[in-house]
Amino acid sequence: MSRTLASLVSLPCLAALLLLLTACGTTRMTDVWQAEGFNRGQMHNVLVVAVTSNVTNRTIFEATFAKELQRKGINPVMSIQALGEDLPTKESVIAFVSKTKVDHVVAVTLASVDIEVERVPESVATYVTGPYYYAPTMHGFWGGYNSYTMTRASYIDTSTNLFLTTSVYNTGNEQLQWAGRSKSFEVNAVSQVASELANQMMSKMDRR
User: Fold this and answer.
1) Residues 94 and 124 in one domain
2) Distance CA 146, CA 36 (A)
3) Shortest CA distance to 74 belongs to which of 42, 50, 51?
4) 35 burial class (0-12, 13-18, 19+ CB within 10 angstroms)?
5) How far apart are CA 183 and CA 72, in angstroms?
6) Are 168 and 101 contained in the same domain?
7) 132 shares a domain with 165
8) What is the pLDDT of residues 37-95, one digit of tens each?
9) Each residue's pLDDT tens digit, 132-159
10) How many domains in the chain?
């Protein structure tokens, strides 16, 4: 996997981060590549770039990702603050890092979106309850059982899964140092994806 920092501009935007759903989600790293000689201890000042034109979601993603890096002892810089609200480009990223102490750039981009739509059929169930106090007098308490039939209408269940690519570049030689592909299941919120992804990335680096 050979890629330079200059190729950042050709990567697709994180359009799927426009989705703010309400399901319980989790992120899993599916495969990882790491350059020989690279380790997370070399990351000190890092520019975090979420490649998306949506300013709100870019801000949320980068802020959450940066917070997780900070917890790991890394000094993060959000591209939304460093570069402004325009979509990050090759030129803007290189121009910024050339005049700062940033030693690595972490770029997160969208690989694909998988939307699963499933029709859940109607169901009918009968429940038996009792004995319980259901009559105006105490006589109704003893030995009384009631049954209830409940119907659940059919409905459409939709789940959204995001496949993201995370790339770490060395600003000194502009070479790719680490890359990982991840899948976020049942996306809950941008902040959740960012938090889980940052921890997954650092965890994978820890093992090398």
Assistant:
1) no
2) 71
3) 42
4) middle
5) 22
6) yes
7) no
8) 999 999 999 999 999 888 998 999 999 999 999 999 999 999 999 999 999 988 999 99
9) 444 444 444 444 555 566 666 666 656 6
10) 2
